[in-house]
Amino acid sequence: MGRTLNWLAPFLLATAPLLMINPARGENLDQVRQLLEANACMACDLRGADLKGAHLIGADLRQADLRGADLTEANLEGADLTGANLEQARLQGALVTNASLNNANLRRADFAYAKLYDVEVSGASLEGISLKNAEIYHTGIAIGGGDE
Predict the structure, then answer these.
(1) pTM, two decimal places
(2) 36 in a domain, yes or no?
(3) Is position 2 within any domain?
(4) Measuring CA to CA, which residue among 125, 135, 43 is closest to residue 81?
(5) CATH code at 137?
(6) Does residue 21 belong to any structural domain of this protein?
């Protein structure tokens, strides 16, 4: 029994941090990994995902559930988020250019300080969207839609 404890204790100490993943966040780590590796995750469950600063250039996120996801300073250039649910997502400082947000749920999404250039938003839900200090060009979002 003594020998078992000799190797078991260091093993448990080394692996304990891996076991302390916060299950309350709601993010599906396998699907986050799929997105980051393949740059595509159609209809994925990415609720609450931590995608801060992620390079998602040209990513296929059609119909993805990104409710409450953190996309702060993410690069979404050319990304397809058609039909995606971005309710309460944080996109502060994100670069969203030549992207499709057609039919997306953007309710209460935070685009403060984001750059939205040539973004398609036909049919998108924009209630409560925050556009504080956002740069918006050639995009069907009016500055008056923000809360500040």
Answers:
(1) 0.79
(2) yes
(3) no
(4) 43
(5) 2.160.20.80
(6) no
